[in-house]
Amino acid sequence: MYEQKTKETDNSVIEFLDLIENEKKREDAYKLLAIFTEATGYPAKMWGPSIIGFGSYHYRYDTGHEGDAPLAGFSPRKAKVSLYFATGDTERAALLQSLGKHTAGKACVYINKVADIDVAVLKELIGQSVAYLNERYPKA
């Protein structure tokens, strides 16, 4: 049986952020913490060793695979910052066109620094992700 690797933990978000060696990356991580907290209305929680998530939802796929995940989140990786939003949301692509300098995979959006993006669009992406996931996976 599949065991979900990334789970919510009781680890301190602030302690995690304070361990970021690069000062500019640490400053950006604190900016993102404030942006995501404001946009979601949820407190930050650590998910696994390096993802900062906001809110949560329980998913169940047709295959029977199920688990919990944050509604939105980010991870200040060494190379780039990973931003996590809902996949499958048709409005995501349109918003990403206005975000600014980024690259995107299926589940993640990658940025170098907060100054490269439009924070207002980021807030829209976060809000849209939360709304989409709450509608797609309503609380039982």
Structure description:
This protein is α+β, with helices and mostly antiparallel strands and 140 residues long. The chain has a single domain, classed as Aspartate Aminotransferase, domain 1, CATH 3.90.1150.200. It is 36% helix and 22% strand. The protein contains 4 helices and 8 strands. The protein has helices at 13-18, 23-40, 90-97, 119-136, and strands at residues 44-47, 51-54, 57-60, 66-69, 72-76, 81-84, 103-104, 108-111. The strands form 2 sheets. A 6-stranded antiparallel sheet has the order 1-2-5-6-8-7. Strands 3-4 form a two-stranded antiparallel sheet. A hairpin with a 5-residue loop joins strand 3 and strand 4. The longest helix is centred in the N-terminal third of the chain and has 18 residues, at 23-40. The radius of gyration is 15 Å and the shape is globular. The mean pLDDT is 92.
Mean pLDDT: 92
Return the CATH topology: Aspartate Aminotransferase, domain 1
Q: Kindly report how far apart the N and C termini lie.
A: 23 Å
Q: In which range does the helix fraction lie?
A: 25-40%
Task: Summarize the helices and strands and which ones pair or pack.
Blueprint: H1 13-18, H2 23-40, E1 44-47, E2 51-54, E3 57-60, E4 66-69, E5 72-76, E6 81-84, H3 90-97, E7 103-104, E8 108-111, H4 119-136
Antiparallel strand pairs: 1-2, 2-5, 3-4, 5-6, 6-8, 7-8
Helix pairs in contact: 2-4, 3-4
